[in-house]
Amino acid sequence: MDIDNIHDPVLLQDCVSLVAPALRKPGSIVVDCTLGLAGHASAFLQAAPEARLIGIDRDAQALGLACERMDRLGLSDRFTPVHAAFDELTEALLRLGVEHVEAVFMDLGLSSLQIDRNDRGFSYSHDAPLDMRMDQTQELTAQRVLAEYSEDNLTRIFRDYGEEKYARPIAHEIVGQRGAHPLHSSLQLDELVDRVIPRFHRSKGNPAKRVFQALRIEVNGELDKLARTLPQAAIRLSVGGRIVVESYHSLEDKTVKSFMVQGLHDDVPEGLPVVPEDAKPFFKELTRGAKKANEVEIEHNPRSASVRLRGVELIRPLPERWKTRYGERARHDDETSIKRGSGKNIGANKGRR
Ligand SMILES: C[S@@+](CC[C@H](N)C(=O)[O-])C[C@H]1O[C@@H](n2cnc3c(N)ncnc32)[C@H](O)[C@@H]1O
Predict the structure, then answer these.
(1) Ordered domains of the chain (ranges, CATH)
(2) pTM here?
(3) Basic and acidic residues bias located where (predicted)?
(4) N or C: more exposed end of the chain, with fewer CB within 10 A?
(5) Distance from the CA of 226 to the center of ligand 1, in angstroms?
(6) Separation of 36 CA from ligand 1 center, angstroms?
């Protein structure tokens, strides 16, 4: 398998320019929360020869390929792979004895390896079991979502995560037919959506695209995990450290933006004449809103069409009350989040740092 050409990293140079300045000091640490095939990660290490990288991915196959690539590029002595979901960031760093890091990077969503693996059911263009798990050890699959969720819940998922106008009729059809004909395969789901959405109301592309995307987000708890991870990253960041995120879905970008904005403004009621030192912003914006890919990149790498890249730098120690808020939020979200039964398997591969 030619690892270098499976997945084309999106906005690679922009990401390197945002992350590498935080990694100038010897021993600096960058965490790539979405290691994938190490396209971005290897470029960070090449641009920052004094830095180490901790690469997290919940997909064991991607981790294996990333390790091969790092070995081949002679970077493995500065690389620590971790098999975990990225919302286990705090736990993963504690296990590695790491208190602070200089950069945290996320390139959300699926890698081309996952999209192209026909047996995972991510794609409507190949018939496969309705699985869609990024982590094969978790219990919740797309098939279970379709078999067990209520019509209201399915409607919410298709509407909110897929922005699907026919969310309710699709959910209604799924619930109506599943007693007699449970859905097992991506082709069955594709055909069901095709039956429900009127032909004259279809936009470009496969009409099932939005339903597949919504199911993938739900199965993998993508938005909950993102919202839980950003505060953990802020708590672990050194002053001068950076958080850089690439999102591909409007709800992901909204989550990233609203998290970053909290640290970009004075934390006082409007109109207060003097702002206490402790209430002044703790982030500096690095991207002036969200950066998008230009036409040349989109032409060369269609995955980049929906990217929104945002970055902030921590300009002073995170105020204590934000540490408390962030810590409490992470705990609260943990308690209320849907249990996906992820097989926790945090830890560096033996023999690698
Ligand atoms: C878009 S790919 C990253 C590609 C990578 N930047 C590269 O250049 O090769 C996203 C990766 O993040 C992983 N991922 C997505 N959500 C995750 C999560 N919650 N925890 C850990 N890994 C996750 C996926 O398994 C996938 O391998």
Answers:
(1) 3-113+222-336 (3.40.50.150), 136-219 (1.10.150.170)
(2) 0.88
(3) 323-338
(4) N
(5) 12
(6) 5
